Predict the 3D structure of the following.
Amino acid sequence: MTKTDFPNLTIIKHPLIQTKLTMLRDVNTDNYLFRSLLNEIASLMVYEIFRDFDTDEIEVTTPLEKTVGYRLAKEITLVPILRAGLGMIGGIQNLIPRSRVGHIGLYRDKNSLEAVEYYTKLPPNIADTKVILIDPMLATGGSTSKALTFIKSKGVTDIRFVCLVAVPEGIKRITADHPEVPIFTAALDRKLNDHAYILPGLGDAGDRIYGTE
Ligand code: PRP
Ligand code: URA
């Protein structure tokens, strides 16, 4: 785990994550392998993201006697930003199977690069839960910032953002708009190109997940 100059950013540099990310970046990786790797990385990231979550003590009865056990203090809501965020959901749900899932549909307008909302559905009790917002790509930060604003408008105060690849431009945007939200990423890349794609990046995540390029 690496802390950076950005106070809200954690880079999860586990060797398994880094080697799988290298395969994801490879232009020759097909959609099937891309989806598998993305979910595997998401699972591996969960370990660090949840490391400091509060737990409540509970009593558990083993076949031999009663003892002290633990459960997460707060219910978890996973919120993928459609489409690409869906590519990480399975890997996280494997480890947190009783989490609820809300959806926020956004796409980046090709000309303005503004995030455009087309679908939202969040669980009714979301304000009482810990929210994990998920999108593999943090580029300009427009999509993530808009999603965070929407989630906060529902009364949520406890949010973490998880991505796979981020650039300084996006981190600065989230730090300015939502300074209290911790960001977890597997990689901090160099910069955006003239079309706001991440360099070196991995291309268009949604297209690579769903084969729509
Ligand atoms: C991609 C990606 C993020 C967004 C990041 O989505 O999945 O949501 O771009 O860019 P930003 O930080 O500049 O907002 P896209 O708009 O391509 O939609 P998709 O997931 O449906 O492919
Ligand atoms: N969205 C993507 O999918 N990839 C990028 O590099 C930037 C935005």
